[in-house]
Amino acid sequence: MKKIIVTLFLISTFFTYAQTFTLESKEIGGQSTKKQEFNGFGCTGENVSPQLSWKNAPKGTKSFAITMYDPDAPTGSGFWHWIVFDIPNSVNELVSNTGNLSLNLTPKGAIQSKTSYGVQGYGGPCPPEKHGIHTYIITIHALKTDKLGLDQNTNAEIVGYYLWQNTIEKASIVMYYQR
After folding, report:
1. CB 141 within 8 A of CB 170
2. d(CA 41, CA 179)
3. pTM of structure
């Protein structure tokens, strides 16, 4: 009898765990590569935003937002590398290189606003040389609103404030990079 109860508990725990809000990528794991690295500021990468997909959005989700943040940047306030918001709740993936605005891969209605580089779209990792390993946190936010009411010129800190007010749940992928 104990074996059956333990087995049922483990199966129940697995299915509960498997249903959590989850962010995944077919292209990135624990380390960023030259493919994602910025091309500028002394970096020579391809500046390709990673493919991202998510599942099990919480009840009440009306839209999504994606952020990519480096808390290790020597700025005193970190560095925002990518901000996409007003992603419709019917979308569950951003394809590779969505962050390149000239390719028009952004889902209809979604907005990519200014990063800490001062431009819209994706700006990949580019830590200062010999500054050590930097952490890059890519987060999907499930939001309780269809639109944040912001535009493509809104800075990262203001978008972050609106995300803080409207996030139901979030999930992240963490990757590291150094030069």
Report:
1. yes
2. 12
3. 0.89
